[in-house]
Amino acid sequence: MNAIHAAAGDSPALDVAAIRRDFPVLARTVRGLPLSYLDNAASSQRPRAVIDAMSHYYENSHANVHRGVHTLSQEATDLFEGARAKVRRFINAKSTQEIIFVRGTTEAINLVAQSYGRPTFGPGDEILVSRLEHHANIVPWQMLCQQTGAALKVAPITRSGEVDFDAFAALLSPRTKLVALAHVSNALGTVIPVHRFIAAARARGVPVLLDGAQAVPHMQVDVQELDCDFYAFSGHKMCGPTGIGVLYGRESLLNAMPPWQGGGDMILAVSFEKTVYNGLPYKFEAGTPDIAGAIGLGAAIDYLESLGMERIAAAEQALLVYANERLATVPGLRFVGTAPEKASVVSFTIDNVHPHDLGTILDHEGVAIRTGHHCAMPVMEFFGLPATARASFAFYNTRAEIDRLVAALHTAREMLG
Amino acid sequence: MDLKDLYRDVIVDHNRHPRNFREIPDADRRADGFNPLCGDKLTVFVKLDGDRISDVSFNGSGCAISVASASLLTESVKGKTIPEAEGLFSQMHQLLTRDDADIDVSGLGKLGALSGVREFPARVKCASLCWHTLDAALHQQDQVSTE
Predict the structure, then answer these.
(1) How far apart are the C-alpha atoms of A9 and B140, rounded to whole Å?
(2) Mind telling me the catalytic residues of A?
(3) CA A417 → CA A183, A351, A367, A412, B72, distances in Å?
(4) A263-272, pLDDT tens digit by residue?
(5) CA–CA separation, A79 vs A83, rounded Å?
(6) Which of A137, A150, A381, B59 could make an S-S bridge to A121, C-beta 3.0–4.6 Å?
(7) Does residue A296 surpass a pLDDT of 60?
């Protein structure tokens, strides 16, 4: 029962006060102060609807899926497959066979590396990424290169934190076997104009994987319109549970890929002479899946859709504009990542105050932000920084919370600057 | 717990004006320390006269706690023998990690200013990085990571 339904329809803006009541954790205090949770790019919070959907499942319908003929197993299977159908619709995949449930973005990318790349890549082949990537879109490819003799190529970024398209295009070659790109940078918030990159890759027949972990929570994603081959994202960054994520893959590619892990559910028949693998999507879902997680993810999608992704995007962009204006008034503050198109993420440093100290001081003011390298060490190294402070906003954040962030930054400067 | 317990005046001062913040080009021992969680990176240089630390310095970058701790370290171990420095390391380890006992900080001098860190578990590694790095230098290891 979220409060937004009343606001749905023609209303142009979200009722943030009502939305905040949907999120139990937002009512808590930290060190005696109201919580300002501005660490949404690391993990967002859960609305009651998601928590209830999972509890309801455990209290009423839990059994293993795809196995029993009894009532609970059928209910569990219906809920689990219902969640898959919601994901398909949410990202506009052609078929639920293209929706693989995984633990998260990281596992999705590892699956593609090991199942798509490992059997066919070899010495002389190249995988092309950008310098903006999260470690999850770097390390699986490095491991694949070690296994196959393929080489990792890295498209450079600019001082504003954008991927240099011309340099990227120049790195595309007949040796390029796969392009793996962030849709939105986790460290800087840059929205990569992926259409252009995908078109360039496809013109050379190179398949494209997008790391959508930071994009799906903030914008309408349509995998058919993007025309990408793989798309990976996580539940916990989009108000869903931890431990569940999605790999979208083009059906023809997934069909040609061997299973990644072996076990139950991914087979049709097993004997010691010959095992026949199951079809999509089950071929890639060995073992009992995270049933409750998938159901929670489905509930998160329902919740986000009840608000409307366009209105979510508009609310977050308004917060970004406000945050940029207010933060610019803090002496010694330097923005890191100034691309014209950004998700609601602000990465910054303050002269003479280390980000790690900022994190501690802000926590004492009830303001939660991320500090560190954001699992993107090559980005930090590019800017010559050991770390940044990063505030990242969700649609449930308010201007008042940004004001508290700014006030706490002044406190930090007074203490240490 | 108050932020002032963490960022005491001594710590703020040593962060703003770190002592012995330089390289010793002809150091007998040196080691690099790295805390990948927050990016703190420092190098500790040691000049030995027998088993006595005749000079010690550091450089690098880090948060206020790690810089101040390293600065305080250099002041406190200069002139000490290696066993004496190791004794201080062990006392500092207790100071930073034992939250139960009354730890006698009287022998630690200014290092006692770091006692507030143990109330901030996420920051203990910042304060201990330089000590682990010194320990590595004295044992002739090149690198240490607190992660």
Answers:
(1) 69
(2) 375
(3) 36, 7, 19, 7, 19
(4) 988 999 999 9
(5) 6
(6) A150
(7) yes
List % helix, strand, coil for chain B (3-state, nearest 5).
Answer: 50, 20, 30
In whole angstroms, give the CA distance from residue A89 to residue A301: 10
Contact B41 A386 (CB under 8 A): yes
Q: Report pLDDT for B108.
A: 86
Residue A319's pLDDT band, with cuts at 50, 70 and 90, is very high
E strand or H helix that includes residue A277: strand A275-277
Q: Which residue of A has its CA nearest to B34?
A: A386
Query: From CA B5, how far away is CA A109, in angstroms rounded?
Result: 44
Q: Which residue has the higher pLDDT, A344 or B95?
A: A344
Any CB–CB contact under 8 A between A413 and chain B?
Answer: no
State the DSSP code for B29: E
Decide: A265 and A66 in contact? Cβ < 8 Å: yes
The 10s digit of each residue's pLDDT in B29-78 is: 999 999 887 778 999 999 999 999 999 999 999 999 999 999 999 999 99
What interhelical angle do A355-364 and B64-77 show, nearest 10?
A: 110
Mean pLDDT of chain A: 95
**DSSP letter string over A77-132?**
HHHHHHHHHHHHHHHT-S-GGGEEEESSHHHHHHHIIIIIITTT--TT-EEEEETT
Residue A62 confidence (pLDDT): 97
Number of C-alpha atoms within 13 angstroms, CB side, residue A101?
A: 30
Cα separation values, A383 from A77, A131, A274, Å: 49, 11, 54
In angstroms, rounded to a whole number, what is the distance separating the alpha carbons of residues A48 and A45? 10
- Per DSSP, what are the bridge partners of residue A349? A334
| Tokens coding B102 | 């009354």
The answer to whether residues A172 and A205 touch, using CB atoms and an 8 Å cutoff, is no
Dihedral (Cα; A40, A43, A49, A52), 10-degree rounding: -150
Q: How confident is the model at residue A119 (pLDDT cuts 50, 70, 90)?
A: very high
Q: Are B41 and B34 in contact (CB under 8 A)?
A: yes
pLDDT value at B1 more than 80: no
**Looking at the complex, does the CB of residue A357 fall below 8 Å from at least one CB of chain B?**
yes
